[in-house]
Amino acid sequence: MTTPAQPRGRPRTGARVAAVQALFQAEASGDSPETVLDQFIRHRLGQMPGQGGFEDGRVPEADVALFAGIVRRAATNSDDLDAIIGTHLAEAWPLAKLDPVLRALLRAAAAELRDGREPPARVVIREYLDIAHGFFTAEEPRFAAGVLDALARTLRPGDFAA
User: Fold this and answer.
1) pTM exceeding 0.90
2) Alpha-carbon gap, residue 115 to 159, rounded angstroms
3) What are the start-end ranges of the H helices in 49-139?
4) Of 66, 102, 141, 153, which one is least surrounded by beta carbons within 10 A?
5) 66: helix, coil or strand?
6) Segment 74-118, tens digit of pLDDT
7) Coil, strand, or helix at residue 63?
8) Contact 151/106 with Cβ under 8 angstroms?
9) Of 2, 26, 29, which is closest to residue 74 (Cα–Cα)?
10) Which superfamily is assigned to 11-154 in CATH?
11) What distances in angstroms separate CA 1 from CA 4, 6, 8, 22, 146, one per listed residue?
12) What are the extents of the domains in the chain?
């Protein structure tokens, strides 16, 4: 008798979740993004015997290259990305006024949308909306949906051509 195969995880989703967490941590702690990247790669990504999963702050399955790429692009281009995000926010709700996790999520998504061509913009939006639903239960996911859609149409207009 054979054992059933383990269900495949979602390493790209794990990378995006970890990127949001790392960007949040870098902003909250004041540590450099490279320091936070190192901490995540050494202590929070991958399986470790006796360690938990998401509920314990770990991301057991994550595409490390994608994670590092998102964090580095978001950090390196933060001023440009913040300006782009800011054009899609109401004047009464500037980026600095948003919840810091939501701010990290928008920055990660903007970095991925701006500097990548794959996956398609709609997939990126869906992934980050799933993440938003994991962090928030109120209006934030709906807010994120509107901003992510506007960002994607600005940064990848070709993905929305008729």
Assistant:
1) no
2) 14
3) 64-76, 78-86, 100-115, 121-135
4) 153
5) helix
6) 999 999 999 999 999 988 889 989 999 999 999 999 999 998 778
7) coil
8) yes
9) 26
10) NusB-like (1.10.940.10)
11) 9, 15, 21, 43, 50
12) 11-154
